[in-house]
Amino acid sequence: MRILSVVGARPNFMKIAPIVSELRRVSDVSHRLVHTGQHYDDKLSGTFFEELGLPEPDLNLQVGSGSHTWQTAEVMKGLEPVLEEFRPGLVFVVGDVNSTLAATLTAVKLGIPVAHIEAGLRSFDLTMPEEINRKVTDTISELLFVTEQSGVDNLRAEGVSEDRIFLVGNVMIDTLLRHRAIAAKSRILEKLGVKEGEHVLPYGVLTLHRPSNVDQPETLEPLLQAMGELAQEIPVFFPIHPRTMTRVRDLNLDHYFVGSRKGSLTGLQALDPLGYLDFLCLMDHSRVVLTDSGGIQEETTALGVPCLTLRNNTERPATVEHGSNQIIGVNPTRIVSAGRHILRNWSRSSRRPPLWDGHAARRIVEVVLQKRFFGSAHRCQEQSSSEQLV
Ligand code: UD1
């Protein structure tokens, strides 16, 4: 049984890691991992492979950055001969980045079935590139592995047949639970001057990278101003995505940062992108996380750390319903007031969505093995129909 998995951008690596480790335990599966090269900086890619114990990819297509169309096309052109040569019985794709969409299109056009991990999520906002990627990927994928009930409901509402939908939990949380104890040994808190002996001083964490938040100065500047205001009370650490850093520099907005002075007890402190373990440790001890990332909404929910999502919607409503997330939008006054409210009434949540228990990857691989996708022909052949997990 031949399986090929495709990853491309930072959040993909945490999602594929537990799948790779489950597949390694199955003797009759030959697995190949392809990295599209959508993310190529060591800080967004190589570090994650090392820290998550992922094997070197069998192939890196090295597509790099470009417009959405260009990037999608480059992945498709690079992947097609690889799929033709290896002829997998199934292709795994994860998440909602351009590489996810491109890999799905390429495989399905060759008649190879695709399993989409993290299917069914919807923000209902087609201005988000990820929403387009999610919808197309789900429409043409054969197996849809879903993290939360809203995903099942969305797919049913779109008319997807029940035998394609599997509610299995969250592979990103598998990875988090597996690495939390290792991350606790990170020295990042000492490096940032917020740990004295066993005592951790209060601080916040900010991440921003959505084009809707960082590409326009009229949104980005008020957001940084609001963070500066909140950071008058506690230091707010801001590991900056390269896309955001470029905008900050172009717009001369770096005066909002106080710099990463060790021991500075307040201020918005810009940092380079962090590795997985340092960032997990930083989130786990944080009083509040402010973010526009989808994955971080889920990770803070699993950690029980209060999260303010700087967007007007979420495709992950379980993090609000069953977790520690609030959708706060981008109004600066509202953000500062919600942040202060959390600091004054701080508590760690112990709620977690159903099935976010560290075993999602095992459930996914079980379904795939029951379905038996064989790689000798391009068309999928189902030997037996498995029980649905929905
Ligand atoms: C991509 C995903 C987004 C995901 C995010 C996680 C799409 C449409 N977007 O956004 O869903 O949340 O990854 O980080 O797929 N760059 C570097 N080094 C790199 C990669 C990118 O400096 O290794 C810079 C380049 O200037 C590039 C820009 O970041 O143009 C944006 O990169 P890109 O991969 O296009 O999108 P992200 O914003 O990272």
Task: Describe the protein's architecture and organization.
With 390 residues, the protein is of the alpha/beta class. 42% of the residues lie in helices and 15% in strands. The chain has 16 helices and 15 strands. Strands 3-2-1-4-5-6-7 form a seven-stranded parallel beta sheet, sandwiched between helices. A six-stranded parallel beta sheet has the order 12-11-10-13-14-15, sandwiched between helices. Bound molecules: uridine-diphosphate-N-acetylglucosamine (UD1).
Please identify the structural class as seen in this structure.
alpha/beta
* Percentage of residues in DSSP E strands: 15-25%
Total count of strands: 15
CA-based shape? globular
Helix count, DSSP H or I runs of 4 or more residues: 16
Tell me the radius of gyration: 21 Å
N- and C-termini, Cα separation: 25 Å
Widest sheet: strand order? 3-2-1-4-5-6-7
Cofactors and ligands: uridine-diphosphate-N-acetylglucosamine
Fraction of residues in helix = 40-55%
**Largest β sheet strand count, sense and barrel closure:** 7 strands, parallel
Mean pLDDT: 94
Q: Can you tell me the residue ranges where pLDDT is under 50 for at least 5 consecutive residues? A: 375-388
